[in-house]
Amino acid sequence: MTLLNDCSGKVALITGAATGIGRSCAQKLAEAGASVIASDIDAEGLQKTVALITEAGGTARACEQDVADESVWQNIIADIKAQEGALHVLVNNAGIAIGASILEMSLDDWRRQSAINLDGVFLGCKHAIPLMAESGAGSIINISSIAGLRGAAGLAGYCATKGGVRLLSKSVASECAAAELPIRCNSVHPGIIDTDIWGREIAGIAANNPEMMAEGGNRIDINLVAAGVPGGKAGHPDDIANGVVYLASDASSYVNGSELVIDYAMTAR
Hints:
Elements: E1 11-14, H1 20-31, E2 35-40, H2 43-55, E3 59-64, H3 70-83, E4 89-92, H4 107-135, E5 138-143, H5 156-178, E6 183-190, H6 222-225, H7 237-248, E7 259-262
Parallel strand pairs: 1-2, 1-4, 2-3, 4-5, 5-6, 6-7
């Protein structure tokens, strides 16, 4: 019987693993038995992620990565082939959120967000698939958002990238299936998740809405944002990571080209 969370013997690469959802995905995959390669541009955060995993008895190593740089992707995949000898799971999680009106967003910000959120996912799929095919089978899990399912005022650029991730995932799944490659590709769509992203780039959405900011803080008040969720319930990174582990495991072997929405019914209405 296949266990829901069994990833024993699998090698998994998780981008954006220094904090938040990425760190939780790395930890949960390691707990499920995977050998983890955690990547990010944040070297200090990466080392903490790896330490948390190894202290808990898991296997992990860190790899600094700018996901928008194709040469870095090529080097990382080659390094995984040399060190681990295989790749079975890719979690394309790295991303940023820039809140701005379509009338005010600069072209530089549009391109920077697209390079990380969409180009990075494209490059990950492109360069991971050959090694996954050599490894016998693979599961690509692309982290999108509920912003990839519906539009949001002040987040046009972000929605464009996350909607692109959704359809890119479906296309990759179809292409691999048509080529008879044993590689699945699905997208995950988090709802309102309490992570540090609310205190970084996305805080720009509150520039003209100071009432959204937490008292005495430099981040959006997650409780105000979560008011749009049934019951006012914000999620946690582990809620997303648990779904990622399922998609990484053989328990989801017939799930391909789909989207897993984890938003506590926020988009069900």
